[in-house]
Amino acid sequence: MIFYETGGTQRLPRTIGMSLAKELIFSARVLDGQEAKAVGLISHVLEQNQEGDAAYRKALDLAREFLPQGPVAMRVAKLAINQGMEVDLVTGLAIEEACYAQTIPTKDRLEGLLAFKEKRSPRYKGE
């Protein structure tokens, strides 16, 4: 068996469910990339490129995808996800609501609404 002192017996069931977590922990089975993606442990499986930086390039692609999003909303979404995963659903929803409330008075929120109305991309400033 594995996972003691690293939090695996607590984190893995929350990620992939209790039944599969028990199976993996009790068997000490190691998953390959495709299996890990199939059970939700990872988001992407990549073939390595000739330069040896496929994962780095994918990370840059994701960063470019995140970059246009509002920094205030990104910050509170991250907070809501991270804190919400540590508590029950009702408490998590309350955390989400509190985080959303922080975006209401921001200039970025108004910019997002205006951009939607004008059918253009928003220009967020983190304010």
From TrEMBL:
Pfam families xrefs: ECH_1
Example of a GO cellular component annotation carried by this entry: mitochondrion
Superkingdom to which the source organism belongs: Eukaryota
Coiled-coil positions: none
Any one of the GO BP annotations: fatty acid beta-oxidation
InterPro entries for the chain: ClpP/crotonase-like_dom_sf, Enoyl-CoA_hydra/iso, Enoyl-CoA_hydra_C
A GO molecular-function annotation: enoyl-CoA hydratase activity
Keyword Cytoplasm: no
Keywords, alphabetical: Lyase
PANTHER family (UniProt xref): ENOYL-COA HYDRATASE-RELATED (PTHR11941), METHYLGLUTACONYL-COA HYDRATASE, MITOCHONDRIAL (PTHR11941:SF12)
Family per similarity comment: Belongs to the enoyl-CoA hydratase/isomerase family.
Protein name from the UniProt record: Methylglutaconyl-CoA hydratase
Organism this protein belongs to: Diceros bicornis minor
